[in-house]
Amino acid sequence: MLSCSPRPPPSVVSRVLKDTGRTVVVRGQGVANGEGHSGAAVCIFDCYGADPLANLPKGKAGLARFVQVDEETCLIDLTVEGLSPGKHGVHIHESGDISNGWKSTGEHFNPTNVPHGDLHHGHLGDLGNVEVDENGWGDLIIESDRIKVWDVIGRSIVITEKEDDLLPSSTDGHSGDGLLCGIIARSAGAFENTKIVCASSTFIVTFKNDTPDEIIEQQIENAKASGAEIVHRYNSAIKGFSVKVPDESVSALSLASPHVEAIEADGEVSTQGRSLLTSN
């Protein structure tokens, strides 16, 4: 266990630990007074390749978590896998329309109409760069007093092929085409939301990174036994599976488990394992 005094920001702790050569994963986010956060969101990235118009998503390639710690501070924890080594631009775009990949997500989110720039002075959607190592793994932890979770839900995040120069000389920092993108969806805290689903809904169930494979396989078998169809198994940037649940099987399906990190369904995310109920 690591104890820090005085309390530095999570981004500082993460950077110091990474400088020692260790892998750092932020797990568990909250506030000191125990009253919970002011809002949360999750964005799961799909890989669209070089030409998003020509191909459907090729698989999950990472995720970003947003937690509004208080009225002034938003914590963003982003992880990606499979990109080329080096820096890649990270931007919140104004639209959550990914029907044509990143090309249909619009411009950078810029409600204050300022020039492009860095995290502190540019577009509200300018999040800087994520640095990817030689193994294709990259992470980024940001604390922002400009971004509010409730302003970005329903928008999208795009990660680009090149580094963002963070300068006001262009609209996108010369960061090139998008490689990964995803919709920012509302996330409920533990026991704050029970997901109500419609007939034949599809869920993406993600597990904590240290979850043994046999536990995930057991959850898959349980889902099959309840009448659900496993659409895909993820085992790279995220661990988990997507499952299609017909109306007549929803009441029999339960994904309650301490190993489940999030359940994404119909544009909404419920964190912590949850039993799933049919809608009226």
TrEMBL record:
Molecular function GO labels: copper ion binding; endopeptidase inhibitor activity
GO biological process, one term: superoxide metabolic process
Gene3D superfamilies (UniProt xref): Peptidase S8 propeptide/proteinase inhibitor I9, Superoxide dismutase, copper/zinc binding domain
Coiled-coil regions, chain positions: none
All residue ranges annotated as the Inhibitor I9 domain in the record: 202-271
Domain Superoxide dismutase copper/zinc binding: 62-184
One Pfam family matching this protein: Sod_Cu
InterPro entries documented for this protein: S8pro/Inhibitor_I9, S8pro/Inhibitor_I9_sf, SOD-like_Cu/Zn_dom_sf, SOD_Cu/Zn_/chaperone, SOD_Cu_Zn_dom
Family as reported in the entry's similarity comment: Belongs to the protease inhibitor I9 family.
Protein name per its UniProtKB record: Superoxide dismutase
